[in-house]
Amino acid sequence: MESTSSDMDLVVTQITFGGFDHSVTAKELSDMLEEQVGVLVWKCRLKKSWTPLSAYPDFKILTTEGVESADDYEKVEPH
Protein backbone atom coordinates (compact mmCIF):
# COMPACT_ATOMS: atom_id res chain seq x y z
CA MET A 1 0.00 0.00 0.00
CA GLU A 2 1.45 3.36 -1.04
CA SER A 3 1.35 6.53 1.05
CA THR A 4 -0.75 9.40 -0.20
CA SER A 5 -0.22 13.07 0.57
CA SER A 6 -3.02 12.93 3.15
CA ASP A 7 -1.12 10.20 5.03
CA MET A 8 1.88 12.53 5.23
CA ASP A 9 0.09 15.66 6.54
CA LEU A 10 1.79 17.29 9.50
CA VAL A 11 -0.21 17.46 12.73
CA VAL A 12 0.95 19.86 15.45
CA THR A 13 0.11 18.37 18.81
CA GLN A 14 1.42 21.09 21.11
CA ILE A 15 2.42 24.73 20.84
CA THR A 16 3.50 27.28 23.45
CA PHE A 17 2.65 30.97 23.73
CA GLY A 18 3.69 33.39 26.42
CA GLY A 19 3.21 36.93 27.64
CA PHE A 20 -0.53 36.96 28.18
CA ASP A 21 -2.34 39.19 30.64
CA HIS A 22 -3.33 37.42 33.85
CA SER A 23 -7.04 37.77 33.00
CA VAL A 24 -6.87 35.80 29.71
CA THR A 25 -8.81 32.51 29.78
CA ALA A 26 -8.19 29.29 27.84
CA LYS A 27 -11.51 29.80 26.04
CA GLU A 28 -10.47 33.30 24.90
CA LEU A 29 -7.10 31.99 23.70
CA SER A 30 -8.60 29.08 21.75
CA ASP A 31 -11.27 31.35 20.21
CA MET A 32 -8.58 33.83 19.13
CA LEU A 33 -6.45 31.08 17.55
CA GLU A 34 -9.43 29.67 15.67
CA GLU A 35 -10.40 33.15 14.42
CA GLN A 36 -6.97 34.65 13.65
CA VAL A 37 -4.98 31.59 12.54
CA GLY A 38 -7.79 29.40 11.25
CA VAL A 39 -6.90 26.28 13.21
CA LEU A 40 -9.29 24.01 15.05
CA VAL A 41 -8.35 23.88 18.74
CA TRP A 42 -9.45 20.65 20.39
CA LYS A 43 -7.92 21.30 23.81
CA CYS A 44 -6.43 24.41 25.38
CA ARG A 45 -4.63 24.58 28.72
CA LEU A 46 -3.50 27.93 30.03
CA LYS A 47 -0.78 27.91 32.69
CA LYS A 48 -0.82 31.09 34.75
CA SER A 49 1.88 30.19 37.25
CA TRP A 50 5.61 30.62 36.87
CA THR A 51 8.77 29.24 38.39
CA PRO A 52 10.72 31.76 40.48
CA LEU A 53 14.38 32.09 39.47
CA SER A 54 15.48 31.01 42.93
CA ALA A 55 13.77 27.62 42.38
CA TYR A 56 16.27 26.50 39.74
CA PRO A 57 19.02 24.28 41.17
CA ASP A 58 22.57 25.50 41.65
CA PHE A 59 24.70 22.40 41.18
CA LYS A 60 27.81 24.19 42.48
CA ILE A 61 26.46 24.16 46.05
CA LEU A 62 28.06 21.30 47.99
CA THR A 63 26.24 21.78 51.30
CA THR A 64 22.89 23.30 52.25
CA GLU A 65 24.34 25.26 55.17
CA GLY A 66 23.86 28.97 54.60
CA VAL A 67 21.37 28.56 51.75
CA GLU A 68 18.45 30.97 52.13
CA SER A 69 14.92 29.76 51.54
CA ALA A 70 12.61 32.33 49.90
CA ASP A 71 8.84 32.07 49.75
CA ASP A 72 7.90 35.69 48.99
CA TYR A 73 6.53 35.39 45.44
CA GLU A 74 2.89 35.75 44.39
CA LYS A 75 1.11 32.40 44.39
CA VAL A 76 -1.77 31.31 42.16
CA GLU A 77 -4.72 29.11 43.02
CA PRO A 78 -4.21 25.41 42.17
CA HIS A 79 -6.03 24.31 39.02
Structure description:
The protein has one helix spanning 26-36. The chain is low in regular secondary structure and 79 residues long. It is elongated, with a radius of gyration of 21 Å.
Report the radius of gyration as a whole number of Å: 21 Å
**Spans where pLDDT lies below 50 across 5 or more residues:** none
Q: What is the number of helices?
A: 1
How does the overall form come out from the CA principal axes? elongated
Beta-strand residue percentage? under 5%
What fraction, in percent, of the residue positions are helical? Answer: 10-25%
Instruction: Provide the succession of SSEs.
Output: H
- Beta strands, count: 0
Mean pLDDT: 78
User: Which structural class should the secondary elements be placed in?
Assistant: little secondary structure
In quaternary terms, these chains amount to single chain
Q: Termini separation (Å)?
A: 46 Å
